[in-house]
Amino acid sequence: MLWSPTPESIAASQLGRFAAWAADRRGIPLRGYDEIWAWSTSHLDQFWADVATWFDVFEGEEPVTDDEVLGSRAMPGAEWFPRRTVNLAQLALRHATDDRPAIVSVHETAEGLSDPASMSWADLRGQVGAFAATLRRLGVQRGDRVAGYLPNVPEAVVAFLGCASIGAVWSACAPDFGPRAVLDRFAQIEPVVLVACDGYRFGGREHDRRDVVADLRAALPTVRTTIALPRLHAEVPADALPWAEAVADLQPPVFEALPFDHPLWIVYSSGTTGLPKGIVHGHGGVAIEQLKQAGLHIDIGPGDRFSWYASTAWIMWNIAACSLLTGATLVVHDGAPGFPSLDAQFAVAERCGTTYLGTSAGYLTACEKAGLRPGDAHDLSALRGIGSTGSPLPASTFEWVYAAVKPDVFLGSLSGGTDVATGFIGSSLLLPVVAGELQRPMLGVAAASWDEDGHPVVGELGELVVTEPMPTMPLRFWADADGSRYREAYFEPWPGVWRHGDWLEITPTGSCIITGRSDSTLNRGGVRMGTADLYAAVESIPAIADCVVLGVEQRDGGYWMPLFVQLAPGFELTDALVTEIREAVKREASPRHVPDEVLVVPGVPHTRTGKRLEVPLKRLFQGVPPEKALNLGAVDDAEVVQHYVALAADRGVR
């Protein structure tokens, strides 16, 4: 164990206090996380009624009763709190105080990182009210879509909350997306207002996006007004409304009372195999789920400073913005994750007094491989929690965090999805931290591991399924009138049961191990293994900068398992290195899953949220035409993909 709670720390945590209160209220024993989780999933009505009451979700209204939580338990189609109204922006802004800022922001400059800038709660409320009034003046109504082409800056938070306050629907793309990728998303939802920046800074370079914005405006005929946010240039287009004018008339927000399931935002699937799916989440579901996740699992509240490094295209940006629901200060970092040096995220944490730092497993592993010791280089005395998501966190990186960052920090590895805007498997201060393991399924999430026959399994790989509804399961997909695409995405092969597409092992002690996507699983001779175990073995070798492995079922019944490696500078793929790779896989992952070939590539393509393109690349090598196998607009490096396309054409259909 790397970290363990004490009776005193458990009692002091928000979850400890909530459990004691709920146990007394219900007259039931809730002695430890596993008992709390069992109650939360077997009595959804009681648990979510108590969460709503504890966090005062319906402030000023009558107390919540159990019988009004679920109008229908159907999946898909569950009806949550059908008789209640809510507004997420109102809940986020009710914590206004002069005691602490609402947002602290840092951005990239030509020299490195800016000094932190603070936005007070009063200023945030005033700007949200001003932006909402501007939207109303522009004729924006409930249900209209407002699109943001913005980096991770405070203005994006203001725009999002302004939309939410009037019942408009927010949707965002990051400015590193090109026109085609943005239009694949925004053209579907027909926005009436576009909020767009003129460029951004990333990795020490300026990226002008004025031409891209002009292309978007020309290709989106439903956009009536463009609100221009200058980042690199002082002037704005003559026919655009400057951001400064849109928020000039500071005023208290006027909040619309909205049905619990009123659409809040539209986020998107990765779009690696076709047009991205527009995933619609609701005000109430997001509000109550994020209060549960941030308050009871991450344990943040007023006085905390919360950061999660993310672009506006990743669901973690949305989740970070929702930390305002708890009264915590949101720390915003606009720039490259490792600029001006790899330890940039820890530098930001020091400057901003961050108490909880959220990041990606890839970033932490890169810091480990570089031999960094952020705890020696930075004052991280305020930091008490670190969160990691995006991919499985290797056991060695767990150990590195405690050795090189902070010995008493609480490290949580989390697994969830854009699909539900939250986690399935998460962390809790009531449980110990064990290297390489996720602690437990999250409260209210009836997660299980099923074999191919639909039977629960323990101690072996199975499909991650959820057998009871969650408040943030999508309301629907955009432009999916009959719900067929939604059902096909999650409810096959088991109708009424959510199948997420991840391999999950639940250990005999109840902890969890996520080993990669189930549809990219390596299955040699009937022995299945997630790709994460192989990556952990290979990436421990200094010569390997990145890699991707494919398990390609062939038309003749054969199975080809190549490993593509991107070499670190100064290394070559020698026979000795190939042997080292094979021995590492055999020793640390599985002797059955030693790759058939090791091939050097110039890079490894990922989705824009950092996931390797395992399934689309596998389809390429099975002979699927490139235009059907993947969507280049959803890839972080389309040029690298062309290497795989050429290679697949030469030897893919074997």
From TrEMBL:
<feature type="domain" description="AMP-dependent synthetase/ligase">
    <location>
        <begin position="97"/>
        <end position="469"/>
    </location>
</feature>
<protein>
    <submittedName>
        <fullName>Acetoacetyl-CoA synthetase</fullName>
    </submittedName>
</protein>
<dbReference type="Pfam" id="PF13193">
    <property type="entry name" value="AMP-binding_C"/>
</dbReference>
<dbReference type="InterPro" id="IPR005914">
    <property type="entry name" value="Acac_CoA_synth"/>
</dbReference>
<comment type="similarity">
    <text>Belongs to the ATP-dependent AMP-binding enzyme family.</text>
</comment>
<dbReference type="GO" id="GO:0030729">
    <property type="term" value="F:acetoacetate-CoA ligase activity"/>
</dbReference>
<keyword id="KW-0547">Nucleotide-binding</keyword>
<dbReference type="InterPro" id="IPR020845">
    <property type="entry name" value="AMP-binding_CS"/>
</dbReference>
<dbReference type="GO" id="GO:0005524">
    <property type="term" value="F:ATP binding"/>
</dbReference>
<feature type="domain" description="AMP-binding enzyme C-terminal">
    <location>
        <begin position="537"/>
        <end position="611"/>
    </location>
</feature>
<dbReference type="InterPro" id="IPR042099">
    <property type="entry name" value="ANL_N_sf"/>
</dbReference>
<keyword id="KW-0436">Ligase</keyword>
<keyword id="KW-0067">ATP-binding</keyword>
<dbReference type="Pfam" id="PF00501">
    <property type="entry name" value="AMP-binding"/>
</dbReference>
<dbReference type="InterPro" id="IPR045851">
    <property type="entry name" value="AMP-bd_C_sf"/>
</dbReference>
<dbReference type="InterPro" id="IPR025110">
    <property type="entry name" value="AMP-bd_C"/>
</dbReference>
<dbReference type="InterPro" id="IPR000873">
    <property type="entry name" value="AMP-dep_synth/lig_dom"/>
</dbReference>
<dbReference type="GO" id="GO:0006629">
    <property type="term" value="P:lipid metabolic process"/>
</dbReference>
